[in-house]
Amino acid sequence: MRFDLLVQGAPLATGAPERALKFARAAIGAGHRVGRMFFYDDGVSVANRFAADESGVRTQLAQLAAQAHFELAVCVTAAGRRGIRAGESLADGFVIVGLGQLIEAIEESDRLVSF
After folding, report:
1. Alpha helix locations (H) across the chain?
2. Hey, is 79 helix, strand or coil?
3. Using one digit for the tens of pLDDT, what is the confidence trace for 60-72?
4. Is residue 69 classed as helix, strand or coil in its secondary structure?
5. Which residues of 85-101 are buried (b: 16+ CB within 10 A; e: fewer)?
6. Known catalytic residues?
7. Residues of the chain above pLDDT 70, percent
8. Crossing angle of helices 16-29/57-68, nearest 10°?
9. Cα 76 from Cα 85, distance rounded (Å)
10. Cα–Cα distance, 50 to 68 (Å, whole number)
11. What does the angle CA 45 – CA 46 – CA 52 come to, to the nearest 5 degrees?
């Protein structure tokens, strides 16, 4: 089964990225596949390389995505509103994309899980 994950909550305020990371690990461990993790609204703040990463979730997400071959997609509009730009403040392992990639993920996945 292919899961795509939508992360909308900020790391420190909601813990959404950490919960998404735990879910992704569990799904992969159970033999499923993660197609894409899409960051939207305040969830994009996890992709800001200048923001504090006290829990290490940013690094862990990038490592898991590289190992399991899935994309850490950051909404271009939400990122821009929060000062996150490719080549400047975007963390390694994350890519800036449009909402079209979220729609594509919804169409191609068996389940979309929101955090």
Report:
1. 11-14, 16-29, 57-68, 76-81, 99-108
2. helix
3. 999 999 999 999 9
4. coil
5. eeeeebbebbebbeeeb
6. 75
7. 100
8. 30
9. 8
10. 25
11. 95
**Residue 54: per-residue pLDDT:** 83
Running along the chain, 115 residues long, what does each successive block of 10 average in pLDDT?
97 94 98 98 97 91 98 98 96 96 93 97
Number of continuous H segments (helices) and E segments (strands) in the chain? 5, 5
Task: Pull the structure tokens for residue 9.
Answer: 């909550």
Torsion of CA 26, 30, 33, 39, to 10 degrees: -10
Q: What is the largest CA-CA distance in the chain?
A: 37
pTM of the model: 0.95
pLDDT tens-digit series, residues 39-56: 999 999 999 999 988 889
| Joined tokens for residue 47 | 């992709």
- In this structure, how many other beta carbons lie within 10 angstroms of the beta carbon of residue 11? 23
Phi, psi of 40 (to 5 degrees): -140, 165
User: Rounded CA gap, 68 and 83, in Å?
Assistant: 29
